[in-house]
Amino acid sequence: MGTIYIDDKAVEFEPGQNVLDAARKAGIDTPYFCYHPALGAAGSCRICAMETVPQKEGEKPRTVMTCSIPAQDGQQFRFKSPKAKQIQKAVVEFYMTNHPNDCPVCDEGGDCHLQDTTISVGHAYRRYDGQKRTMPDQFLGPLVYQTMNRCVTCYRCVRFYQDYALGDDFGAMGSSNHVLFRRTEDGAFDSPFSGNLVSVCPTGVFTDKVYRRKYSRTWMLEKAPSICSGCSVGCNIEVGGREGTLRRVQPNNEESKVNPYFICDRGRYGSHGTESHSRPKYVSEQGKVVKTSPLDALKIALVRAEGHVGILGSVEEDLTTNLALKAIAKEMNAPFSPFISPQQEALTKTAVAANHNAPSISDIEQSDAVFVVGELTEHAPMLDLAVRQVIKAKKDVYVLHATPSHLVTALNKLQRGHVKALAPSQWQDCLTQINTAVHDGAVEDLWIKDVANALKQAEKPVIIGVAELLNTADISLLNTITESLAPAAKMAIALPSAGSVNAALTAQENSCAELMTQIESDKIKTLVVVGSDPLNTNNPHWHALHDKLDQLIVIDKVLTKTAHLSDTLLPLAAWPERDGMTINYEGRLQRFSKAFARKTATIDAHSMIETLMKSPETIEQWLTELAPTLPQAGDDGIIIEKDKLKCTELPLEQKTNPPAIQSTQPQVALSKWFGEGYVADHAPEIRSLKPGSSASINPKLAASLNLSNGDQLMIICGDQKLVRPAVISSQVADLTVALNQADMRLLQADIASPLCLERTSELFIDADKKEEIKNIIGSASVIMMGEA
Ligand code: SF4
Ligand code: SF4
Ligand code: FES
């Protein structure tokens, strides 16, 4: 801590801060364009000028760019000197010579840093009457819109995209006064973080194309601090709604302890899934809209149940909702579980219990060695962005994976040899060997030795695993390795869903098995499903249970398969439409606020508590036990104490062994796309970028099957078969076929399920498309999904 003086005002600074940053933090409205707190200074725009105050006789004041001057104790500057003011004003005038006069129709209007700066430095009249420079715009896909003429050449976009997010399909092109910022070719960005260009650009060159389509001036939005429900990172977002619909999602707070400055595209654009045309908006009974309030319909349906009720909550929902459902179930003497399978319950509870010392995004960024197990980008994108900062700092990052991943692509460019692709059934052996090497045991594999050495030598090593791809034994091994490293070592398990911790903490022991057993034994004839999709699992068990029910009541914010099959369908409020609390992978309890109300009535935890509960104080009691002081919306939240995050009923020692598989047999690996999610799957813009179903396969395995890219591959798992076009990729492990979740469901396959493969000319299609396709392709053999 030190002190500098600006216009004789004392300004305190932290070590490492520059003068501009210290001034901003002290509330001095210093102009800047090229500087960004997360990206640093480029020193190119020349607007952050101040004058130095001479310290010795004969010394003259100097003009300095404050973003490039490290703050040092006792320095003195003049921000308001005539010279400094003249430079600031001249710089803005220079940028405005070419800037179009399109503020009234610019989507950035009201949020524009250039607009604010123009006013603040006092540039009011245009003197230049020459021709303006014009530049071509580029089509950048469905998420980001470009208006190149508004550029002030601050290079923030390139510094974010290339230097911070390590992307390489976008850059500066041209020279002198004609620099264009564009992709190498038209089309969508190849980065899960592209929407941040909208946030970093200080003017309206990059604007949010989804918000643009649902246009509203920023000051007309109803805004509130909220939490992203896209994954277990729980990023802080600001949501803006208008006229009962979601219009915009952006990062909330540059000081956030979770995600300062940035969010991923799944969070920014996927949240719009709740605006899908198919969203349940009204009460419907047996598929027909009924004119009644959702809560009345729920009460009537519960009366019909005559006490034989079970409640299925959700791993996608917040703590408040799951607590409310648990309390309601308790009063009704009904079983409650937020999990759709005992396996999901065991894995989630194990992963949550292991996460008691999880690193924050900032801890990850400052680590000096990171070991990632699984395709992190596709499961917890902002943790990936944190790992990229470690790569950028030239510290060791190692990744063990089975399928293509954005992080692997980025790492391959800068730290060759640091990734290892292994079939999922081999991961446990690999982790066991790393554990051996960390404990100085002998191992032969050089990569494993390197990983162990890097972790052992690091002062702040971080291990990150992806729960959805691991079994409980793998998590236990990662925990053991972490405990053997430096005292500052930390481990994070990216959890399968945004509400994984909420679910783990609200579920009783074996809650899912108990719920299923009671349906099986006819004790439950009415099931209430809230924010969950058990009938989408292709799990025959849930379909059999469904047949045993008299009544299926679904309350949801998106139209799922289960919602389709419901007897009563009721609209649920999405997170931006209600207050709530949620716990992220770190165990951080955060509160979110309602930004806007929909025009049609919805159900939320609070209205269910008011309508259905006799003694709602149970929930208050549970919350007080969890955290004596509860967080406020928009603050840093509260880290729940370690002991309270331990889900006692499933100790880490409980191991699930991977399925036995012959060493030469191909197997399944899960291939996820970074933009998918429970809500995001319904957001049209981001969903339009989702790759089609394919079978990604390693070149060696492809060669053994005589397969070329695009050839049809028949994949046989047990008595199920499927045909998908082959995509040959060196990022797929040998003896592995990477499939998306939907195809794994069709095959009724798990990760590492053994497969038989053959090249085919047959085409498997959905039943309803069979005749149509036959007419088109005539001679090809057409087999329906599931036909053996
Ligand atoms: S496009 Fe925006 S961020 Fe990029 S250089 Fe121009 S003004 Fe700066
Ligand atoms: S990392 Fe997860 S929580 Fe954060 S913005 Fe992306 S989807 Fe949302
Ligand atoms: S902000 Fe200092 S030179 Fe651009």
UniProtKB/TrEMBL annotation:
One MF annotation (Gene Ontology) recorded for this entry: 4 iron, 4 sulfur cluster binding
Primary enzyme class: translocase
Keyword terms, alphabetized: 2Fe-2S, 4Fe-4S, Iron, Iron-sulfur, Membrane, Metal-binding, NAD, Quinone, Translocase, Ubiquinone
Cofactor: [4Fe-4S] cluster; [2Fe-2S] cluster
Annotated 4Fe-4S His(Cys)3-ligated-type domain residues: 83-122
Localization in the cell: Membrane
GO cellular component: membrane
Domain 4Fe-4S Mo/W bis-MGD-type: 221-278
Enzyme Commission no: 7.1.1.-
Highest taxon listed in the record's lineage: Bacteria
InterPro entries hit by this protein: 2Fe-2S_ferredoxin-like_sf, 2Fe-2S_ferredoxin-type, Asp_de-COase-like_dom_sf, Mopterin_OxRdtase, Mopterin_OxRdtase_4Fe-4S_dom, NADH_UbQ_OxRdtase_75kDa_su_CS, NADH_UbQ_OxRdtase_ferredoxin, NADH_UbQ_OxRdtase_Gsu
Domain (2Fe-2S ferredoxin-type) ranges: 1-85
Gene3D superfamilies named in the record: 3.10.20.740, 3.40.50.740, ADC-like domains
Functional note: NDH-1 shuttles electrons from NADH, via FMN and iron-sulfur (Fe-S) centers, to quinones in the respiratory chain. Couples the redox reaction to proton translocation (for every two electrons transferred, four hydrogen ions are translocated across the cytoplasmic membrane), and thus conserves the redox energy in a proton gradient.
Assembly behavior: Composed of 13 different subunits. Subunits NuoCD, E, F, and G constitute the peripheral sector of the complex.
Protein name according to UniProt: NADH-quinone oxidoreductase
Native source organism of the sequence: Photobacterium angustum
